[in-house]
């Protein structure tokens, strides 16, 4: 009788263990793909994003199709990309701040904040994220504030090196070709020599053009153009990769504050992420090796 009860207990224990094992296998198989599709700290991801300011204008994008979409509106402070491509972001990795405060480029600041916000999101679909950042504390006044002339002078035509032309346009020069026809200051290629390219700006008196500083009115001065910038307090300004905000205007100058990497604005970003199997260190090593092999 006692032995029979022991055997029954063993059988019950085995059945219970088998049931637990089957449940674990079933639910484990059901949840593992979902877990694998979720971004976690330590992942390295390729991120495409398009970030807009409050009026819907695009400030920066990694997507060529977004930048060239005729129905989209680019901010006058739009940050152009020489090569549109996803950015590599290590999720959750702490960024090292410089020893002393310096102005920071907007694209780098976006990457830092996306690294913090991607954790827990899915690798599938498009995510709508709000990206904000704090002002740079203790930024020296000499770096924080810059002044610029309200009237800019531009030659009607100029000569540039062929290498610089290719860098600026992404293509070889062809005499007679008009470039940037859809932009504020289109060029016409007048002539091409072995090492240089002669280009002409196609502007008209009274024409309004959009510059990184804001809208400007063209004044034809015979041998050159003068571009009178219509500045306004609080307006965004782009200088290279940096975004600033106009804080003061005089008869001839305007003052730009670079304390805030986004000019004090809140960015609405459309973001997609793709898993990268290589580690960030491996990617950096590969990039360094390619750079060393380049002629």
UniProtKB/TrEMBL annotation:
Annotated localization: Cytoplasm
EC class: isomerase
Gene Ontology molecular-function annotations: peptidyl-prolyl cis-trans isomerase activity
Record keywords, A-Z: Chaperone, Cytoplasm, Isomerase, Rotamase, Signal
UniProt cross-references to InterPro entries, sorted A to Z: PPIase_dom_sf
Family the entry assigns: Belongs to the FKBP-type PPIase family.
Protein name, per record: peptidylprolyl isomerase
């Amino acid at each position: 009788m006692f032995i029979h009860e022991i055997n029954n207990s063993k059988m019950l224990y085995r059945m219970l263990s088998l049931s637990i094992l089957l449940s674990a296998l079933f639910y484990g198989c059901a949840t593992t793909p979902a877990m694998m599709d979720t971004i976690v700290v330590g992942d390295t991801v390729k991120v495409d994003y398009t970030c807009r300011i409050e009026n819907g204008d695009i400030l920066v994008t990694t997507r060529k199709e977004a930048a060239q979409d005729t129905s989209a509106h680019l901010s006058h402070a739009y940050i152009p990309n020489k090569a549109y491509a996803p950015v590599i972001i290590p999720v959750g990795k702490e960024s090292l701040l410089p020893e002393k405060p310096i102005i920071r480029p907007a694209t780098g600041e976006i990457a830092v904040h996306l690294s913090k916000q991607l954790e827990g999101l899915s690798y599938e679909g498009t995510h709508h994220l709000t990206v904000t950042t704090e002002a740079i504390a203790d930024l020296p006044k000499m770096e924080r504030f810059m002044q610029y002339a309200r009237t800019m002078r531009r030659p009607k035509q100029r000569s540039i090196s062929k290498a610089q032309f290719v860098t600026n346009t992404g293509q070889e020069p062809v005499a007679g070709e008009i470039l940037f026809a859809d932009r504020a200051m289109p060029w016409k290629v007048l002539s091409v020599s072995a090492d240089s390219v002669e280009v002409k700006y196609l502007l008209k008196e009274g024409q309004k053009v959009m510059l990184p500083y804001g809208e400007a009115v063209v004044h034809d001065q015979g041998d050159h153009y003068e571009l009178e910038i219509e500045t306004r307090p609080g307006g965004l300004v782009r200088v290279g990769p940096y975004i600033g905000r106009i804080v003061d205007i005089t008869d001839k100058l305007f003052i730009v504050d670079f304390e805030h990497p986004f000019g004090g604005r809140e960015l609405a970003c459309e973001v997609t992420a793709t898993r990268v199997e290589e580690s960030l260190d491996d990617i950096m090593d590969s990039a360094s090796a390619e750079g060393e092999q380049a002629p």
